[in-house]
Structures are given as structure tokens and as C-alpha cells.
């Protein structure tokens, strides 16, 4: 399988190179040059597979010759052995809704599904092909801890995660700072999340620093993350297929960067019988407005009860645009130019009609999020986290629905308590965090301070 850039400046790179590249060198995102399709007969066979074996079948055509099959088997097995549930991503029945629980990984949020795999894959490629990777990222909470959990203790990888001091939840902070592996470097910035993002951007723009220290990112644009996320759409369908009796399934997906729901969109393009993909956002509704109007325009970012979805620009949106305009890189570039010049882009009437066939978009505010947590708890006893509650609310009334549960409720107990007056019990991965030893340095939100710290930490490596 070969990959190309959505902007046309990169073509014919294999899976390993696509993973190493992350962002395409022309500034675009990497996509497969052709999607494999899955026949109804194959789908029927996949229904009986356990998660790891299904992951192998879904991933193998995308990996192609870049890795021997036996090595891919081993990577998959190791990546999902860290999950606390034997089914990895089980589907549970809650009232008349099916919930796909994606939060049984080490940090209790769905990003583990992709980042456990990506961490092992990076380690494998570096061991095989040589080199070294120094990951630098800023986090407002969830991504940092999942990235750290994905690469802790791995050879040839160092990770630096910047978080705003005192501005993330105590659990999220401890999930990062209690990781004491020598290759993990937590930095608490005297500043905001935006300061962290600005500093990381500045480091990546400092090309001599970037090359000297082989900086890499783990944000949601890496193709391997999308690939790992496609698996659970097939898996969930297999779990509910008997009940569907041949009818297609509908998924409700809490969405921020568009990565998770884009994986579902690709599964549908490959032949998975999906009736609707419900794109659920919180008050930060740039994507909902796009589906409603055909215009994509940035706005202000609001803080909500579902903070992992508080985004202004959905980093995977460009991949969807590419398919929407018929895999035409020139047209993608024209739309992005328009966005760069004017702060907005607008697709044609025909394309807009296609968008509305692809997605049903619903924005859910904090009051409705709390109401949903309360209602589900009162009628079924099941506790939703606020991100999942946004999806469940958005999917209300749909038949044959599977809602993606993206975080364990105990990770967001402040909102849970506000909704139902009590907290969700913590899973083993979140217990005892407040009593463990921590390591973290505190730095000013200043480029020189951060650059010096990273340089010194890397120079001290053997
Ligand atoms: C990251 C995240 C999301 C949003 O996923 P995207 O791929 O960015 O759309 C939703 N819920 C939780 C808990 C997350 O951590």
C-alpha cells in the first residue's frame, strides 16, 4: 500500500515512511493511494474474530509489505495487552443504546487505542531502521498522558510534554507526572495551554533545532492513529450485527479533531454497512456549522465540560476534504488557500449535499450534557463521562445506534458529581495516583528556557 499527501506534494511512500513522516513534507496529511474494499462475505467472517485478530485483518492491507505479518501480529498483541478488558473495546447494552467502551486502556481514554499501538510501532521502526525520536508536545490534559503511556520506557524515544501548571485536573496531572521512566520529561509551564502550543510551534519552526534534535510530534495527524481507530468500528458492528438482522448500523461519535469520526468514515467507504455517522460536538461547533452551511470558519474557543473536544481547528478535517472533492489535491490546496486568506472556506452546493449525506451533525451544550448524564444514570444506573454524554445526546432517537464512549467517567468526576451528586468509581489505572511519587520541572513560558531544558536533557543521554 502506498500513501500520498492530500496536497499532492508527496506520493508513493510506504506505510513505514508514512508513519515516520507524520505530517506530510508538503504540509498536507498522508492518505492511502487507494482504499481496500471489504466484501459482505469477508465482513461475515470478521464478525467472529476477537479484537486482536480483527485488528490484524483490518490493518494488514494498509501496512502492505512494510512489515512482516508476524511482526504486525506481535505489535498488535503487545499494544492491546495493556487494556484492562479482555475484549479490549467491549460493547455494552445501556437501555436501548449500545455503548462501545473505548476507555479500558492505561489512561482511561480512547486515545490509548491508537497511541499504545503507535508507541510500539515507533519503537519497532527505530530499532529496525535506526535513528532516534524526540517527541515534543503541549497538552491540555488527555493527549499528553496517552502519549506518555504509549512511549514510556521505550528505546530510542524521549518525550517532552508541556502542560499549563495548575490548569489541568489533578488526575490528569498525576497521570503524567507519576510516570518516572527516564525517557519521560514532564514540564509544567508558568502559563496557559496556548503558551504551551505557541512554544511547541516555535520549536518546530526553529529548523536547525528541529533537525539537530530530531523532533517529532504525536498529534492526531499520524496515519497510524487513524488506522488503529478504524478497527473498533468493524469490531462494534460485529458485536451488534445479530440484533441488526441485516440493517446498517449508526454510530454517534463525540468529535474534536475529527480523527475518530474520520476513521468511521473510512470504514464506511471500505464497505462497512453504516447508515449514519453522527458527528457530535459540544459548544465548540465549527464542524456542526460546516455540515449545516457548507462553510468552515474558525471561531472563538469556549471552555466546556468536555474539554478534549474544545478545539478551534479540526486537524484531520483536511483528510475528509480530500475525499469530498474527489481526491483532487489541487482543489484541496485551493480551499486551504481560501481558508488561509479569509479565515473560512466554502464547498460547492453539490459537495455540501454530499457532506449532509455523510454526516448528521449535532452540537450539545453543557446543560444538555449534564441532563444526559443524569437521565442515563436514573434510567439505567450507567454513568457516562461528559464527552460520551455529548454523543449519546446527539444520537437520541436514532435506531440501531452505537455510541462511542471516549473516556471513563471517573476521569471527569467533577462534571459527573454536578450531574448526579456522586462520583464514578475509579478503574484500577486511576487509583492511588495522588499517593505516588512524581517528577516534573517547572519552567517559565519562555522559548529559551524550554529550548535549553530540552537541549540539556538530550545532551545528558548516553
Ligand atoms: C480526544 C478526545 C475526543 C475527540 O476525539 P477526536 O479524534 O479529536 O475527534 C473525544 N473524547 C475524549 C475523551 C478525547 O480524549
UniProtKB/TrEMBL annotation:
PROSITE patterns per the UniProt record, alphabetical: DEHYDRATASE_SER_THR (PS00165)
Classification via InterPro entries: Ser/Thr_deHydtase_PyrdxlP-BS, Thr_synth_N, Thr_synth_N_sf, Thr_synthase-like, Threonine_Synthase, TrpB-like_PALP_sf
Gene3D superfamilies noted in UniProt: 3.40.50.1100, Threonine synthase, N-terminal domain
Root EC class: lyase
Enzyme Commission number, as recorded: 4.2.3.1
UniProt record similarity statement: Belongs to the threonine synthase family.
NCBIfam families associated with the record: thrC (TIGR00260)
Protein name: Threonine synthase
Organism: Thioflavicoccus mobilis 8321
Taxonomic lineage from the root: Bacteria, Pseudomonadati, Pseudomonadota, Gammaproteobacteria, Chromatiales
